[in-house]
Amino acid sequence: MSLDLDDLRSVFDEAVAGHRDDPDLLLRLARRARRDTRRRRVSTVAAVAAAVAVLTVPLTMRGDGTGPVLEPSRDGRPAAPSRTQDPGPELDLRKGPEPAIGTLPTVDGEVDFPLPFDRYHPVNASERRIDWAVNRLARACLRRFGLDMPKANSRIPKGTPGAVLIRAYGVIDPSRAATYGYGFAPIPGDDGTSMEPPEMQGFREMNEAEASVFHGLVTAYGDKPVPEEGCLGEARRELGWSWAFYGEDVQRLPQVALEYALRDRRVKAVNLQWHDCMRRAGFSYPDPQKAVRDPAWRDTTTPREIATAKADVACKRETGLLGVSLAVQIAYERQLIDRNSAVLAPLKQGLAELESNVDAFIARREP
């Protein structure tokens, strides 16, 4: 996994300013850039260049099953409304003293491991379900105007198992390591012939009228007033969606906690044990992050990559690296949350209400 979403996020921050209508944009761009039609990696430089190229052309919006996706515009097509994302609440993200850790968590393979901050910011499966519900409601809104949008996939999106752990600590499953090394396994339901995940395949582009009403580029269509911020805005309001969940500091908090954890003396100690284990197996890396980002893994999966990834997973298990690292990361997240509790409390309540509304909508949806 030589290309990390959080690495890309820092590169894209300036490029995507004003085009944050899709909170999942960077995730999909990262996934898109990381894969070719045969599931091989591309270099970090090429991936960043390709993604930034997408973001520097005129843009219009295309709806799909999980959220609007930025596409190059065509002559005569309306551009998506430019808006600057609300920076959200300002948080105190300074590092405090090394926090105490509790019982070490047990990580057995790729699981959706909950982290404290997950209750304040939509992640993984939660975020994709929210985007899916927003688009379903927006489509119903469009139909009131005699319009439609690209058909939303009937399958409710699910998160990638272990996505949070894999992003932070690299490969963790022995069977995946033995088959794909540090690469990505095919997504269930994907035949491997497309660069898009299954729920994003086969959707047509919005036409001018659809895009205008979807984004609220017009105040009326026919004899009917268009909702403020269009059908997209109406759908978000109905579910309780808020830009506050995607504020700059809010998005940074879990990554800052991870950065503090990786510099913590307890994590450094277990990384040294992991390093000694890897050295005995014939590989020399100071920590798992360096192994993941070895430039040798950029192009094709080699026997050495497979061997390295297998040793990596074995050494993580032998040293208990994941348990220690996660315990420390959780402690830093809690430290930052406690310090910002007054500011974050409304986000926790708002996200719980949003997820409840999404669950209720999904429960009553038509098949």
Provide a compact summary of the structure:
Keywords: Membrane, Transmembrane, Transmembrane helix. This protein is mostly helical and about 375 residues long.
Describe the structure.
There is one protein chain. With 367 residues, this protein is mainly α. The chain has one domain (5-78, 90-364). Helices cover 49% and strands 3% of the residues. It contains 14 helices and four strands. The chain has helices at 5-12, 25-34, 44-55, 124-144, 163-169, 174-180, 208-215, 230-239, 248-262, 265-280, 288-292, 303-319, 321-339, 341-364; strands spanning 59-62, 69-72, 220-221, 224-225. Strands 1-2 form a two-stranded antiparallel sheet. Strands 3-4 form a two-stranded antiparallel sheet. A hairpin with a 6-residue loop joins strand 1 and strand 2 (69-72). Helix 2 crosses helix 3, helix 4 crosses helix 14 and helix 10 (265-280) packs across helix 12. It is globular, with a radius of gyration of 22 Å. The model is unreliable at 1-84 and 191-196 (pLDDT under 50).
